[in-house]
Design brief:
- By secondary structure, the protein is an all-alpha fold.
- It folds into three domains: about 100 residues, no CATH class; about 55 residues; about 50 residues.
- Helix content is about 75%, strand content about 0%.
- α9 packs antiparallel against α10 and α12 packs antiparallel against α13.
Amino acid sequence: MEAHKTKSLEAIENKMASLDEGSLRYHVLESARNFKSSWINLGRSLYCVLKDKLYKEWGFATFEAYTAKEVGIKKVTAMKLLRSYYFLEKEEPAYLKGDYAESVNTAKLPTYEAVDLLRKAKNKKDIDEEDYSRLKKDVLEHGKDTQEVRKGLTALIRQRKELEPEEAQEKRRLVTLKRLLGSLKSLKQEAEMSHFLPALLIRETGELINKIEKELG
């Protein structure tokens, strides 16, 4: 056993030695051992374990107990791995096709943390499609580290928020017009029924209503 190996790695390799090399349980541990370069494999394997509750067959009451005691990773890490892998499977399936580990330079493989940030960016209202596409390229093609991705994401959100005053002003304008439109329609209807206003004024009110409706689109 090499001197630089941690106790965690030693425990994983000792466990692997007692398992069938063709089993999923062995494959999960193998993926955990090669965690840095193949976290996607580990995420995929853990997803299968969780989905089919295989950890129960292996003597663990919960998925968290299995990942902590056998795989050697904390619950928060396991959940990030699962979310990041599932995100790629659902949103970027093309990325998972083929043998990415051999076709992509290991230095350019994205970390699971960076993919998790990409997942969060996908659901942010402050990020448009063009921003997301650029961010995706940084993560999946260029393999930018988590800190760089986080800085880029923060800058994008800040840039979008600087535009919010204009957007907020436009929303207030539309709300005011809709409120005015509703009031005018009610008053026009009441005036027509009561005959309190001259026909010309009622007609002009109708024209104003039409103009406001055009303004609202």
